[in-house]
Every structure is written in structure tokens, then in C-alpha cells.
Amino acid sequence: MVAATTRSVPEECIRLEDKEAGLDGFIVIHSTARGPAAGGCRFWSYDTPEAAMVDAMRLAEGMSYKNASAELPLGGGKAVLRRPAGEFDRRRLFEAFGRAVARLDGRYVTAEDVGTGLEDMENIAHATRHVAGRTARPGFAGGDPSPWTALGVFEAMKAAAAIRFGGSLAGARVAVQGVGNVGGRLARLLADEGARLVLADIDTQRAQALASELGAEVASIADIAGVTADVFAPCALGGALDEAVLGVLKAALVCGAANNQLATPEIAEVLRARDILYAPDYVVNAGGIINVAAEYLGESEADVRGRVVAIGPRTAGILEMARAEGLTSAFVADREAEAKMRPLCVA
Ligand code: NAD
């Protein structure tokens, strides 16, 4: 089952169990080739420990690709904790998790993910320093990663538009699916650039309010993927690109923040065959992890900006290579990331 969902075997899989604290889950260290395995802590309901482990392995592998692609001095890892069914003491649970992270002595660095937040990171920090996503300190990187993720997607979209349309995003029609923390900020950046926007969100009030502010149109969540647009930006949930969406998609470029946009790996080939340029998700949405990593590494905001802006040319390079070699951009992104999954040489 695990072999079917991941491409490679992780370095280490650590079972976490502390019944009194309600801790039940896994830390998976996929790769430490580039540095400490970094990746967030997911806190979610899983029916079985096996289901949590499979998810942790898949997500840890994904972090190795994302971190290597972003050229961070980090490997890939992930923690997945099963949310207790009944009442539980959240502080105690995350302190126990912090002790488990501490025992790994820096081989794994944790941060926020689905189901965890700032307060959990502060509780983890009672037990270990190998945690990021904490309160930002003046002069240092840290805090909310969403603006950086949005900036990275924006830079990637500008670079991809230059390749696909031979011009800028000014006047281009962009359909944004999901205007939450990242999608909302992306929409603002696009509006400033002169793009014409169509917005959709399950939270229709949120979409309406932003549309009024930016002079954008609103579409229903059922229609957004199929509206007439140059660019489709999935910024909601994973699996945004499936057979049904491809049946209605009119955009010639897909570039958005959502993780795991391809519902199945085969979708990448369908997009290529239809000459729809796909900017690989983990390449373009790395701004958040870049900011989290900078906090852990003690870097400045200027370092973060430099790395995030580099997402533009990196995306362009992958798209150009894919086109020249007749391959999918997803394949080329993976190939390039795998080539970087090796120890860094320090001069
Ligand atoms: P968010 O929860 O703030 O925003 C998501 C928005 O999508 C919400 O407004 C929600 O109402 C809306 N939504 C949900 N289902 C929808 C649907 N079917 N159609 C239209 N809208 C829908 O989340 P976010 O932090 O903005 O993240 C967005 C995506 O980007 C996620 O897939 C996330 O994993 C990914 N991502 C986020 C970051 C980050 O820094 N926040 C980093 C990397 C990747």
C-alpha cells in the first residue's frame, strides 16, 4: 500500500505513542541529504494508525521534492498526528510531540500544517528548538507564510505567462479558485498588475467583498474552472485538475497555490497534449516553506524575498525544458528536484 503511494523509501519512520498525553502518530524522515528533514505537523482524524503512516510517508516525500526544488538547505519530513476522538489536553499533547521531536536531535524540524497553528508551535517549543512557524521577531523572517506563498505564485505566473502568451499579465483574464489567505493576496497582486479577475470561493461573501474591492467578476465554485480565461489559478484544495475540470477548462495556463493539483499523475500528460501550460504546484507554492525555513535558519526578510522571487525564473526554466524535450512539466520538476536531493557542498 505504501509502495503504491510513494516513489521511494524514507530514511526513517518513527512511531509516536504516549497514551496519557493523547499522542498517536508518526514522524517520517524522508531525506536528510540536503539538511534536516523539514515539514509541518498535520493534526487530523485518521481511522487507523496505518492510514496516518501512509499519509505521513506521502507528505514527507513531497517535502523532499519541494525543499530541494526551492534549493533550501533542508531535506524532507512530516509529522502526522491522529486527533483523539474525545476530549484531550491540547497543550499536553503538543508538548509530548515536542519531546519526540527533541529526541531526534535536529534530524527533523516541524512547523504548522493542516490542523495545527501558532499556539501549538509555541507548546512544541517548550520541549525543542527544532520548530518554526512561531511568532515573528522584528528583523527576522517568520510569521504568516501566506503572503510569501502568494508572491511566489505571482512571480511564477508572470514567468509562465511570458512563455505561454509572450507578454505580461496586464489585460490577461485570470480565474482564481479560492480567495483565502493565499488566493486573496494573489488576486490583489494580479489586480495591481492590471489583470482582469474572476473570483470564486465557497465563502461567497468573501469572494463578493474582494471582487467589489478589486473591480473583479465573481463566478460560482461550479463554474470557475470553465470560465473564459487565459489563466486558471487553483488556490483552494488539492485535486483541482481532474478529468471533469479538463473537460471544461479554457485557460491556456494553470498556475496556482494549491498543493497536489493533479488528481492523478496522468493528468499532466493530458495537459501537455492539449498545450495547456502547467506550472508545477510545489515549485510555485514554495514561498511559505521558504519563509518557515528562513525563520528556522535565522535568515532575514531580504533572504526570503530573494529566494521567493527566484521561483519565477525557476518555473520558467522547468517549462522551457519540458517544452524543448517534449515532456510534462511535472516530470521535469521531479527530475530537477531529484537531482538536487544530494548533500550540499560548503566551499
Ligand atoms: P485558506 O483556507 O486560507 O483558503 C482556501 C480558500 O478556498 C478558502 O477561502 C475556502 O473557502 C476556499 N475554498 C474551499 N473549497 C473551495 C472550492 N471548492 N472552490 C472555491 N473555493 C474553495 O488556505 P490557504 O492558506 O490560502 O491555502 C490555499 C491552498 O494553497 C491550499 O491548497 C494550501 O495547501 C496551499 N498552500 C498554502 C500555503 C500557505 O502559505 N498558506 C503554502 C503552500 C501551499
Summarize the structure.
The chain is 44% helix and 15% strand. With 347 residues, it is α/β, with parallel strands linked by helices. The chain has two domains: 2-63 and 74-124, Rossmann fold (3-Layer(aba) Sandwich), CATH 3.40.50; 146-286 and 313-339, NAD(P)-binding Rossmann-like Domain (Rossmann fold, 3-Layer(aba) Sandwich), CATH 3.40.50.720.
What are the main properties of this structure?
single chain, 347 residues, alpha/beta, Rossmann fold, 2 domains, 6-stranded mixed β-sheet, 15% strand, globular, binds nicotinamide-adenine-dinucleotide, Aminoacid_DH-like_N_sf
Q: Your description of this structure?
A:
The N and C termini lie far apart (42 Å). The strands form two sheets. Strands 1, 2, 3, 4, 5 and 6 form a six-stranded mixed sheet that branches. This protein has a six-stranded parallel sheet with strand order 9-8-7-10-11-12, with helices on both faces. The chain folds into two domains: 113 residues, Leucine Dehydrogenase, chain A, domain 1 (Rossmann fold); 168 residues, NAD(P)-binding Rossmann-like Domain (Rossmann fold). 44% of the residues lie in helices and 15% in strands. 51% of the residues are buried. Helix 7 links the parallel strand 8 and strand 9. It is globular and about 55 Å long. Helix 2 packs across helix 14. It contains 14 helices and twelve strands. It has 347 residues and is α/β, with parallel strands linked by helices. The site of nicotinamide-adenine-dinucleotide has 25 residues, from helix 5 and helix 6. InterPro entries: Aminoacid_DH-like_N_sf (IPR046346), Glu/Leu/Phe/Val/Trp_DH (IPR006095), Glu/Leu/Phe/Val/Trp_DH_C (IPR006096), Glu/Leu/Phe/Val/Trp_DH_dimer (IPR006097), Glu/Phe/Leu/Val/Trp_DH_bac/arc (IPR016211), NAD(P)-bd_dom_sf (IPR036291). This is Amino acid dehydrogenase. Keywords: NAD, Oxidoreductase. Pfam families: ELFV_dehydrog, ELFV_dehydrog_N. Belongs to the Glu/Leu/Phe/Val dehydrogenases family.
